[in-house]
Amino acid sequence: MEPFAELTFETRLVNFPFGKLTEPYHPTSVPIYQTATFEQSSASGIDSSYDYTRSGNPTRDALQIQLASLENAERSFTFCSGIAAISIVTQLLKSGDVIIAGADIYGGTVRLLSTVINEDIIVEYVDTTDLPKLESALNRHANSEKSKSDNHQILVLIESASNPAMVVSDIRKMAKLIHKVKGGLFCVDNTILSPFLMKPLELGADLVVHSATKLLSGHADTTAGVISTNDKELILRLAHLQNAQGTSLPPFDSWLLLRGLKTLAIRLERQEKSAHYLANWLTTHPAVSSVKYIGLKTHSGYLLNQSQSKGCGCVISFETNGDSNFSRCIVDNLQLFKTCVSFGSVTSVAELPILLSHASIPLSQRSRLHFPENLIRISIGLEDQFDLQNDLSNAFEIALQRQGSLSSVSSSSSLSLDASSPSASGSPSISSSSHNSPKSKKQHRNFSTHVRTTLQSSSAKHFTSQRRFSSESSSESSSESSSISTGLIFSTKECDNPSDCHPSISTKSVHSGEHQRNYRKYDGITTPVVFSSAYKFDNTDQLIQYCENKFESHEYGRYGNPTTSVLEDKLRKLENAADCLFSASGMNAATTMMFALIPANSRIITTKDCYRRTRQFIHQYLEKKMGIAVDIIDMDDPMSCPEQLEILLQDTSKPKAAMF
């Protein structure tokens, strides 16, 4: 890892050496070692690196090595959930030891400390923003009768920004106070910021934990926890507990987390940008009384957070100008924001903490919390910020109408949108990079328009090879032409019902297709993966209805799959197409399209710089075996292509042409 030590955090997310994990085939993605046990080279097993997946697994090791590098830690350990990681931290303690926890930490952590850990471990909740109060608690426990034992420990457990009250504690000053007392141990739960924005170990913490389910994974498709440390003694104890307790992260979940980590920086940058915009807007809304977001300059911890991190995350909490029922009405009427626990994924979510994430906190302990019952917590995903603003604004208006305070939201209550903005125009959202496209892209678009016009006038078919999705492709599709996109999919025509799609491409990419609730029986916010070669019918009547297209179902895996159907629906909407079929590969999509739609003894017009494998297929199969004529045009000068095309199409001695 030494040659990579000077690389930036962002580069290490994507391009990282995985130590002893060497592969004979050199894959660019870490393999999933989905095995319970490993064959030994001898009866003694001395020479083998692995014996049993609970004790060690190459995929999990790759993840732990990368996480340690990202945390600037000596070692990282992964577990099956965030609360499992915190539970392991508490097991570093013994009877008579002390836990001093932040006053408003996560409800699941409170439940663990209140009902699960050793009853002889003393738990005290302290407002850690009050350093004299923390120092007093530390000294009191350090000078108690039980502290006289040689290995007495006092664990202080806080969150880098408390969830959901967004209270910020001074980690550097706390570390100095904690390490002054005998047996002081400092653990920071950095779930809400991630190592991309903050590294608590560098600020003086002994341990840092994460619920990797959230920002680190980023896709809400796995649960995982992480503990990182530089302390050699703690490393030995944590390694023993990980193996002995059997709570280590399985190989497939490790691989999912490795995949999610690659996009952490770019995801969080986008999420934080949207969170800043929405937090500022919320401060202007009459339905909102206060906003808790550490990126606001009005936040009490704003300057402190700036001094110990490089960002503010994507979680916003706000109190409403109403009671808990008013807040419930807002949450119940959100459409893009999903009502669920957790945060940090690509999908925006909303909840009332008092009813969900913190519902387990006993009523007797709620007096110390820094948030009231009408507090709403939202986590900002990758949807377009204007779409999210509109969603919130609509929910506010419904709640205000039902409350009877206002008949509608005042026109001055929301930020005005520029006439060219996506929400104002109702057109697909295009990123700033698309608005400032290089000249070559503009020429290509002009060329595409010319080609479309020429082909339509000659009754030829137009097939566009497209190996990357872009907002340009969606906005340029024409209902008069048959546009076929290849890559992982090919699709035809454009959407006949634009209202079926959200206005921005970024929001479509998160939500389109996911509405098929018959495929999501238990309402998980990610689509279930269905592995089945055949599908059953309850009775023959149901089968007959299926055959008559009166009952939606599946029959055989080769014909269709519920998971694939959701993906095809999502891609159909991204392409503004009437239909979409998913294929095994980009090459399979291209060849299937050509076999199905280009008849024998016809003609193909293509370009000399067409993808090599596609060109080989055209020449070796279509031209030689099917007798299809092939004409080549030169794309080096895009503006001359329409002229070349027109000359070829006017040659009536040749068969009708299809362009690819």
What does this structure look like?
The chain is of the alpha/beta class and 660 residues long. It has 3 domains: 2-262, 3-Layer(aba) Sandwich (Aspartate Aminotransferase, domain 2), CATH 3.40.640; 265-416, Aspartate Aminotransferase, domain 1 (Alpha-Beta Complex), CATH 3.90.1150.10; 439-659, Type I PLP-dependent aspartate aminotransferase-like (Major domain) (Aspartate Aminotransferase, domain 2, 3-Layer(aba) Sandwich). Helices cover 37% and strands 13% of the residues. The strands form 5 sheets. Strands 1-7-6-5-4-2-3 form a 7-stranded mixed beta sheet, sandwiched between helices. A 5-stranded mixed beta sheet has the order 8-9-12-11-10, with helices on one face. It has a 4-stranded parallel beta sheet with strand order 13-20-18-19, with helices on both faces. Strand 14, helix 18 (471-476) and strand 15 form a beta-alpha-beta unit. It starts with 8 loop residues before the first helix and ends with a strand.
List the helices and strands and how they pair.
Layout: H1 9-14, H2 58-71, E1 75-79, H3 82-90, E2 98-102, H4 107-115, E3 122-126, H5 131-142, E4 154-159, H6 171-180, E5 184-189, H7 194-197, H8 200-203, E6 207-211, E7 225-229, H9 232-245, H10 251-261, H11 264-282, E8 288-292, H12 302-308, E9 315-320, H13 324-332, E10 338-339, E11 349-351, E12 376-379, H14 385-403, H15 422-425, H16 432-435, H17 439-457, E13 461-462, E14 464-465, H18 471-476, E15 485-486, E16 489-492, H19 505-511, H20 540-547, H21 562-574, E17 579-582, H22 586-597, E18 603-607, H23 612-626, E19 629-633, H24 641-649, E20 657-659
Parallel strand pairs: 2-3, 2-4, 4-5, 5-6, 10-11, 13-20, 14-15, 18-19, 18-20
Antiparallel strand pairs: 1-7, 6-7, 8-9, 9-12, 11-12, 16-17
